[in-house]
Amino acid sequence: MSLRTQLRKILPSISVTEQEALDAGDVWLEGSIYRGKPDFDALRAVPEAKLNSEEQAFLDGPVQELMAMIDDSVIQNEKHLPEHILEFLKKERFFSLIIPKEYGGREFSPYANSTIVGTIATKSSAVAVTVMVPNSLGPGELLMHYGTKEQQAHYLPRLANGTDIPCFALTSPEAGSDAGGIPDQGIVTKGQYNGEEVLGLEVTWDKRYITLAPIATVLGLAFKVLDPEGLLGGKESLGITCALIPKSHPGVELGNRHDPMGIRFYNGTTRGEKVFIPMDFIIGGQQNIGRGWQMLVSCLGAGRGISLPALGVSTSQVALKSASEYAAVREQFGLAIGQFEGIQEKLADIAGKTYLQEAMRVLTTEGLGMGLKPSVVTAIAKYHMTETGRDVLDSAMDILAGKAIQNGPQNTLASGYVAQPIAITVEGANILTRNLMIFGQGVMRCHPYLQSMVEAIHSEEADADKTFNKILRKTVGYSVANSLRAFKLGLLPFTAGSNSSLPEVQAYEKAAQRLSAKLAVYADFSLLVLGGKLKQAEMLSARLGDVMSYLYAAMASIKYYEQKVAVTDREAAAPYFHYATRYALVEAEQALHKFLDNFPAPGTRKFMRVLTMQFGHSMPRINDDMVRELATAAQLDTAFKAQLTHLVKPQAGDGHDINEQAYKAKIACLDLLGKVKRALKKREIKAGVRFYETLDNALIAKVINETEYAQLIDYNRKREKAIRVDEFDFDLNLLDEAGSLNDVKSAVNQ
User: Fold this and answer.
1) Which residues touch 258 (CB under 8 Å, ≥6 apart)?
2) 10-residue block means of pLDDT along the chain (750 residues)?
3) Residue 466, in any domain of the structure
4) Sign of the C-alpha dihedral computed for residues 377, 381, 387 and 388 taken in this order
5) Among 227, 267, 344, 419, which one is most buried in terms of CB atoms within 10 A?
6) Is 518 within a domain?
7) How far apart (Å, rounded) are the C-alpha atoms in residues 550 and 385?
8) Where a domain ends, among 161, 181, 204?
9) What CATH number is given to the structural domain containing 386?
């Protein structure tokens, strides 16, 4: 019995949906990471993402106008998104960011799409989700890639100008993560349409969690097609299919709402019982029956690589701006709280991870802007950027403390804090994404021979043994080369290469090369020892996926520092860069240790450890000096910090504006505050009960002059406003019938 035949009995076959997922998308930078040779030349060759003049004008115009219209505290206490905002989104074609200009769309780049969604999300998660869904996985993108000319000509202009509002229904109560197991089905049959008998489908479905469903005018629907009578002349089970059905079509039910954490975007259900649709409703026509899953997974990049990561980044930028400004302005025990090391530890982590988030956002959208559909990279972006957003936001909540837990117009964190679990849950729950997708897809897509070998193992061709043996020889050679390289870099770490012209980058690039070489060896031995069982060893494979993810993050950090940071800003950016890159590399190394510590074969585990010289921690850890340096940098008003929080656009009178005014006022009078504090210390003046009384005493004692007094009084007024929270002049339980707070004003802002 040949080795191929033996393996065929052992290894599980790949399902149709798994194969379609593997075939969809492109292999990009993650391929070189998996193979042990991170391609920094390819990284540096990626075209730098920039907004063109039209995209910048849209951000400066309609987006800014929209931001001024949004009062999220009002939205969250209403039942619906305000009608005037919804109409504005339609009028300014916010739903057409990905639609080609020939159909009336804006046809913006992935980077611009991400920037627009991220900017809106800093003000309102509900509005951001409403904008992102039509520009993500759904009818628009599916029609662009797979629709017939007639479907494109009819629907795309209507989607672009807001005449039609789309939703896409995939998730069923019986099938969420297992989308291939959806029970919804369409039976091939004949029926009446427009007064004629035509061939079509009798579709029954029950879907939930469908964003925009309550207001949608056109429903994208995924279901399985069966042909029990053989009307199409082939097999009975034809596979997952996507159709586009007008809401007005008889039998379509759209309307019941869910309440996703009180975030007021439209989300709900759709159902239908034996609804007859003609073949023309299938996206791409009858020929696309059974291609639905392939179509869906190939279009997942927008949601996973653009929209949801943008929500994570916006959360981080809001957290950094809010926490750093509050830490600089808020004083306790006579000191700004940003000078206390407990606060500094949290603040530095926020700042470093926000830098990493922005670097990953930029690199991922740059890849998508090249026309690539990197399925593994977008899964990495979705998982790590939404999780990091949650992590960063938790730290900011700790710093702002009581100010962060009181709802009202001044609270800059509440909306994101409540909404962040939504980004983590949708488009593939994060547990699924990390444990099954990143390395699960990566091992098949990134290994140069594995997918071909599996195909050869299960092949029915006469020369399958010959083909298998040829691939096996190449695989063995590849694994031996990986082992030799990892051993060399483990024994002689200084031999790792770097092409960077910046000395501060070179050490990190070399570290990434060494860690990647170890990853390649561990992946090879996992396949050799565990084989098909690796699919069930989710914790092990997730750790290897973490190594890939954090090395991708480190590469993003390096590219951002080299290309996006102006030479004049390098000194200000350095603390962010070092913290972020070191964090990513330390996490990658930690994941390697956890993998080895838990590998089930003791002999192989020891051999891998010796082969790769993985005995301790080679990456320098983040130390207290780095924390202090970055926490201090994060509280400075620098051009680089403004660049890193560029998604946040303060509007007159909102929480960001109130905080920023107090922060900038303090930065402008630091010398004067120092003068007053020195006078207090020398007992030249007495402290008042209120700070303005202290300033009165300083003026009388001529410690400060009239001009300086006016500046300090202005700062104190802004400071007092910034450290206060919203308070209301009524019983919060006494809302009107609509549950509206429209007529209620914050006492602080009157």
Assistant:
1) 208, 209, 267, 268, 269
2) 58 58 77 94 95 97 96 86 94 95 96 96 94 86 93 96 93 77 93 93 95 94 94 90 95 90 89 96 95 82 82 96 96 89 97 98 95 89 93 96 91 90 83 82 80 74 80 88 90 90 95 94 88 81 93 97 96 97 96 94 92 87 96 96 97 94 95 93 91 92 94 95 87 47 42
3) yes
4) positive
5) 419
6) yes
7) 11
8) 161
9) 1.20.140.10
Q: What is the Cα–Cα distance from 407 to 499, expressed in whole angstroms? A: 50
For residue 406 the two structure tokens come to 């009181």
Question: Three-state SS for 11?
Answer: coil
What value, to the nearest 5°, has the Cα angle with vertex 124 and ends 119 and 127? 90
277 and 302 share one domain: no
CA distance 108 to 548: 30
Q: What are the helix (H) ranges across 133-195?
A: 139-146, 149-160
H helix or E strand, kind and range, residue 691 = helix 691-700
Pair 34, 27: CB distance under 8 Å: no
What is the number of domains present in the chain?
5
Using a cut of 0.85, tell me whether the model's pTM lies above it.
yes
Q: Which residues does 683 contact at the CB level (< 8 Å), separation at least 6?
A: none
Domain of 92, CATH number, reads: 1.10.540.10
> Which of the listed residues 161, 189, 219 is the one where a domain comes to its end?
161
**Cα–Cα nearest to 303, from 226, 243, 364:** 364
Nearest to 221 by CA among 165, 156, 272: 272
Q: Which residue numbers are catalytic?
A: 427
169, 205 contact by CB (below 8 A) = yes
Distance CA 487, CA 613 (A): 7
β pairing state of 237-246 and 185-193: unpaired
Domain that holds residue 96: 53-161
